[in-house]
Amino acid sequence: MIGDTKIKVRVTDAVTINPLIKQFRFVSCDGSDLPAFSSGAHIFVEMEDNGTRRLNQYSLMSTPEDLSCYTISVRRDDVGRGGSVFMHNSVKPGMEMVISHPINFFPLDVRARKHLFVAGGIGITPFIAHMAQLLGQDHKFELHYSARSHGLGAYVDHLKDIYGSKVHCYFDDKNQKINLENLLRGQAIGTHVYVCGPKPMISWVRQTAEQCGWPDQAVHYEEFLAPPTGKPFVVELARSKKIFTVSTNQSLLEAIEAAGVDAPYLCRGGACGQCITNVVSCDGEIEHNDHWFEPDEHNEFGTIMPCVSRFCGKSLVLDR
Amino acid sequence: MVTTVFPKSIKSRPIYGQLLPKHGTRHLMIADGEGATGLTDMLSKIKNDRSEFLNKSHIVYVPGVNGVDQSDVLVGLGAAQFYKSPTIDAAMPRLRLILQDARMGIQFYLSGTESLMGRVQTAIMETGYTHSAIQMEHRGSLSRRVQCVHCKGITENVKIDPFKCGHCGLHLFVRDHYSRRISAFQGVNIDAEDPGVVPPSEERFL
């Protein structure tokens, strides 16, 4: 399955960028080049965290032309499920890890005459690769990067050094805000806008673009939806003949994998539909957290996306 | 007049919808021949603020090659700008000038023959604007703009199939295979194996 192609890598660097963000550099264990990728791609990093196998996705921020290494940045989320804390506290240079092949759900639309990048916080990472890919090509681009403060704005100085006036920064602690409506209304025809950042920022850009008459096709966004936590629940897999409990910090997909069942997946973030599974019977309420189908469509088709969705009730039996 | 219904065909064959007024900073409407009614039907769907919509509108109109000229109706709408062009060819420089200054937020409404809509769509696409965001509604003649795959010459207003390439003289079968890049259907030599054996032409694209 596509999401299951794995690469053994060694961590060569784990550098603190600021109090929230750490940067990691991977090279392949056998010294060969890593698979080629296009800017905007992400990888899954496998973590063995006290018996829980985690697969977290991180955008590649290294230059697509350089296949000697992959670089990612991880923002620590102390109230998350624990993957980022594991990366920050337990991953050290010299350690061997397993990552997936790169997958790209956030590529450049090369038909665009100009690329307008809007980044919020750690959402800067895919744009670092995008700008590296565009550098030296005859493409126009502009970055509008918003962070809490200069100190927490990862790579701000570095990006300004390389790209100069193409980089515009906004800091919350200085009450600076992107004048989005002005920005969007002023763009020449053929401009595409890309946004990566917190969920409210993505909604803000999508809504403002729509109000300004931008077509959906020119608005690109990437949202990494981490599987939500929730109350533990029991699930039965009809074909595999297994019954087990999905714990609070575990996704249904992770629990299926932990039970030794090979299940399809690709994005692990409720966006691609790859993991879609038929529900055999359900006595209770499925919490559909994906943005692939509408919840009532899931109920109509009798499906669930185990990468992000959970269950609350008496019994849930899946066709897996 | 109702919108043309096209028989089901290969995926490459363009399909058209019905124009709907959209929220935008500017509205560029381009039509030829009977396409004028495609525009007026769209405008009649605006409930409020029709004049506000028209104040932001630019209409470019080309009378049909079949002689249909509804420019009076369009002039009477009172759009901010109206431009009448004798042919599609002559309208293209004007269109490129409009596109040069256009900003995101502009909406496109095309109506009329496939030749007009296809050529305008290609010009808009060249700016980097996505083709699928351009609204198009077919009205009027079904005549086609066809490129000979052999000599690459383009023949306009093709009504019969097979037809004789206006450039190299080969007898061409008109396929539904369409290119958005060159806004033309594909014409393929029909008597390559048996030169001279050409089925009689039918009027397929009236």
Description:
The complex is a heterodimer of chains A (320) and B (206). The radius of gyration of chain A is 20 Å and the shape is globular. In chain A, the strands form three sheets. Chain A has a six-stranded antiparallel β-sheet, covered by helices on one side. Chain A has 320 residues and is of the alpha/beta class. Chain A has helices at residues 83-90, 125-134, 156-163, 180-185, 199-211, 252-258, 295-301, and strands at residues 6-16, 21-28, 42-49, 52-59, 70-75, 96-100, 114-120, 140-147, 167-171, 191-196, 219-222, 233-237, 242-246, 277-287, 303-304, 310-318. The model of chain A has no long low-confidence stretch (mean pLDDT 93). Chain A has seven helices and 16 strands. In chain A, helix 3 links the parallel strand 8 (140-147) and strand 9. Chain A has three domains: 3-104, Elongation Factor Tu (Ef-tu), domain 3, CATH 2.40.30; 114-222, Rossmann fold, CATH 3.40.50.80; 233-318, Roll (Ubiquitin-like (UB roll)), CATH 3.10.20. Chain B has 206 residues and is α/β, with parallel strands linked by helices. Helices cover 22% and strands 29% of the residues of chain B. In chain B, the strands form three sheets. In chain B, strands 3-2-1-4-5 form a five-stranded parallel β-sheet. In chain B, strands 7-6-11-10-9 form a five-stranded mixed β-sheet. Chain B has a two-stranded antiparallel ribbon with strand order 8-12. In chain B, strand 6 (144-148) and strand 7 (154-158) form a beta hairpin. Chain B is elongated, with a radius of gyration of 18 Å. The two termini of chain B are 16 Å apart. The chains are: A alpha/beta (320), B alpha/beta (206). Chain A binds chain B through residues 109, 111-114, 184-192, 210-218, and chain B through 22-25, 99, 102-107, 124-125, 127-130, 132-133.
